Amino acid sequence: MESNNLEASLADQHDILRSRLNREGLRLTGPRKKILDLFVMTPDGEHLSAEDIHYQVTTKGGKISYSTIYRALHMMVDLGIMREVELAEERKYYELKTSLAKQHHHLVCVQCGEVHEFEDHRVTKASRQETLEHGFLLRDCQFTVYGICQTCQLSAL
């Protein structure tokens, strides 16, 4: 049953990306499909960097260059399929973009890099209000809080 859900999710994501690519006159290439598949199979709450993608594809016997990965990721971000998040200094991570109704945010430990996701409708509501007041159209809302997790606080004692 779980396998059928994964296959359905992969098919849905492929259809969404294929449709958006077609509107732009682009194709769903093998590397783009591989990258999208990795994100669909990644557990909720985990984020992938370009290095993570390269490692996962090449350890499975595939070949993909970093330039191909970066081009595909930037294209998917531009099309609204992916979201780019900066969870560590000068390191970008990516995740599948959710609808505004399922928006989540991040707590990041600046010492160990641990990331916790959380949902808070007040953040999205405030973002909507601000965009309306300033005449913007809300496309995405990212709220990241940097701090020190309990484990690192305890180890400092």
What does this structure look like?
- The chain is of the alpha+beta class and 157 residues long.
- It folds into 2 domains: 1-97, Arc Repressor Mutant, subunit A, CATH 1.10.10.10; 99-157, Ferric-uptake regulator, C-terminal dimerisarion domain (Dna Ligase, domain 1).
- Helix content is 48%, strand content 17%.
- It has a 3-stranded mixed β-sheet, with no helix packed on it. Strands 1-2 form a two-stranded antiparallel sheet.
- Strand 1 (82-88) and strand 2 form a beta hairpin.
- The mean pLDDT is 84.
Topology:
Blueprint: H1 2-23, H2 30-41, H3 50-59, H4 66-78, E1 82-88, E2 91-96, E3 105-109, E4 115-118, H5 121-133, E5 144-147, H6 150-155
Parallel strand pairs: 3-5
Antiparallel strand pairs: 1-2, 3-4
Q: Determine the structural class based on helices, strands and strand pairing.
A: alpha+beta
User: Oligomeric state of the chains?
Assistant: single chain
Number of strands: 5
* Principal-axes shape call: globular
Share of residues in strands:
15-25%
CATH fold-level assignment of the largest domain: Arc Repressor Mutant, subunit A
Amount of helix: 40-55%
The CATH architecture assignment of the largest domain turns out to be Orthogonal Bundle
- The helix count comes to 6
Poorly predicted parts:
none
- What is the fourth-level CATH superfamily of the largest domain? Winged helix-like DNA-binding domain superfamily/Winged helix DNA-binding domain
What is the N-to-C succession of helices and strands?
Answer: HHHHEEEEHEH
Q: Can you summarize the main beta sheet?
A: 3 strands, mixed
* Total domain units: 2
CA-to-CA gap between the ends?
Answer: 48 Å
With strands numbered from the N-terminus, the spatial order across the biggest sheet is: 4-3-5
Which CATH class of the largest domain applies here? Mainly Alpha
Give the rounded overall mean pLDDT: 84
Rg over CA atoms = 17 Å
